[in-house]
Amino acid sequence: MKSWFEKLLVTYGYDTLSDFGQSLAPALKYTGVTAMTTIMSAMAVSINRIFGLDSYAFLALLFTLAIELFSGLTASRIRREQLSSMKLSRFGFKVCCYLVLIAVPYLFATSFEFHKKTLAAAVFDWMHVFLVIQIVLENLVSILENMAVISGKPKTHIINKLTSKIENFLK
Q1: What pLDDT, in 10s, does the model give residues 126-164?
Q2: Which of 6, 86, 126, 144 has the largest CB neighbor count within 10 A?
Q3: Taking phi first (over 0 means left), then psi (-120 to 50 degrees means alpha), and beta for anything else, what does residue 93 get?
Q4: Long-range contact list for 130-139, CB < 8 A, 24+ apart?
């Protein structure tokens, strides 16, 4: 015996509940694609809700962190330093700290905004933006230091050149 919902579906040309489900979400026909799109959607929403960054900004942050890691590994190899799990775990710990520093002010800002505490929300929103900018800048400095070492120059070479150019520009 068909339920009223199944009878309703038949009037719209759906022979089964499965046909209706595949019409709503055609990716369900492709098991691998469905799992992948579901995971990606959940991650995108979670990243936005936890870190206050859209998917592109978060990917750019991850890309920056990856460049820092690989340029650091290359610079270490050039300095003939032994690769150790301690250095890699230090990097992982640093990334975790960065993510906490990005997430906490954002979560507080959204919480205060929800509770109509506009001044507190503005303070934490400012702090969130400041910390994101500062973290990205710190990673860029680290990358530039690594690039100087990779190119055979002292660690501070590129930073000193940039600082000099900025000072000359501001004169």
Answers
A1: 999 999 999 999 999 999 999 999 999 999 999 999 999
A2: 144
A3: alpha
A4: 131/101, 131/102, 131/105, 132/53, 132/61, 132/102, 135/61, 135/98, 135/101, 135/102, 136/61, 136/64, 139/64, 139/65, 139/68
pLDDT tens for each residue of 33-50: 667 777 888 888 889 899
- State whether residue 122 is helix, strand or coil: helix
State how far the Cα of 120 lies from the Cα of 113, in Å rounded to an integer.
8
Is residue 28 within 8 A of residue 16, CB to CB? The reply is no
CA distances from 1 to 6, 9, 16, 72, 76 (A): 10, 14, 13, 67, 71
Contact 52, 110 (CB under 8 A): yes
Rg (CA), the chain: 25
Model pTM?
Answer: 0.75
List the alpha helices (DSSP H) in the chain.
Answer: 4-11, 17-24, 31-51, 55-78, 85-114, 118-150, 157-170
Per the listing, tokens 């905004």 go with 113
Q: Which residue has the higher pLDDT, 59 or 1?
A: 59
Cβ–Cβ < 8 Å for 107, 51: no
How far is Cα 154 from Cα 135, in angstroms, rounded to an integer?
23
